[in-house]
Amino acid sequence: MLDIAGLSVAYGGLRALSEVSLKVEAGQFVTVVGPNGAGKSTLFKAISGIVPAAAGSIRFDGEDLLARAADRRAHLGIAHVPEGRQVFKTLTVRENLEMGAYPETGRRQWVRTLERIHALFPILAERHEQLAGTLSGGEQQMLAIGRGLACAPRLLMLDEPSMGLAPAIADMIFERIAQIHREDGLTILLVEQRVAEALELSDRGYVLETGRMVLEGPYQTLLSDDRVRRSYLGIGDE
Question: For the chain, percent helix, then strand, then coil, each to nearest 5?
Answer without folding.
Answer: 40, 25, 30
